[in-house]
Amino acid sequence: MLLAITRAVSPAINQCEIGFIERQEIDLAKANEQHRQYESLLAELGAKVVSLPAESDYPDSVFVEDPAVVVDEIAVMTRMGAASRRGESEALARALADYRPLRHLREPATLEGGDVMRVGRTLYVGVSHRTNPAGIEQLTNELSLLGYTVVPVAVRGALHLKSACCSLGDGAILANRSWLDLQPLAGFRIVDVAPGEDRAANVLSIGGSVIVPASFPRTAEILDRSGLRVRMLDVSELMKAEAGVTCCSLILES
Question: Rounded to an integer, what distance in angstroms lies between the CA atom of residue 121 and that of residue 119?
């Protein structure tokens, strides 16, 4: 069974961490409705949604992708690069413990799940503002014994690797090539985001479809013409918190 773990929007989301965009006021009611529609679409595409309650003390806690890296055998609880977010891990770890044995990264490691793009048994991990070499080394140590390969990828000008690229399946990756070093991804077919839609690379492939933010219609057209089944979703309020459609769920096989 495909499982999607989500968390309700924090009422304090306007105090979220911002790295590479200008801060804008987030309409909490609209953000809640957009998140509800996101969960509904995940369910429509075949996932059982496990929705966790909001964490009022952690403005960014709706972004459940960042505190954990989940593979088939274990869940690795990360040590997030934003120190204000590290408390998010505790409640998420309790939820994940029902599905996977847990491992934990330790200081001086920093790593966030938004920097991890998994393709089969290879994990491409961004060296970014939030993820350091020690975090990548510790993740490698945890996963190599399970037969996974970890490949570092330099990220520039973006918060996370998955701000710059995401897997579309079948050997294709959607990318904003100005935000990352493409050399580690040389074996893939690169699909470029549309001009002027710099943040459009963050898409979520699930259930035979690709979820694309409604803010990026030209990139959606590119994907549609390539034969992918595109589902567009308005996440404009959540994007004001420097989010994308991968950020708000942890997808795993239960």
Answer: 6
Band of residue 75 on the pLDDT scale cut at 50, 70, 90: very high
Q: Taking residues 127-134, what's their average pLDDT? A: 98
pLDDT at 254: 86
Left, alpha or beta for 207 (phi > 0: left; psi -120 to 50: alpha)? left
What is the predicted pLDDT for the residue at 40?
98
Q: State yes or no: cis peptide before 108, omega within 30 of 0.
A: yes
Q: Decide if 247 is catalytic.
A: yes
Strands 209-213 and 116-119: unpaired
Residue 248 designated active-site: no
For 74, 119, 223, the CA distances from 101, given in Å and listed in that order, are: 5, 21, 37
* Catalytic, out of 16, 35, 129, 160: 160
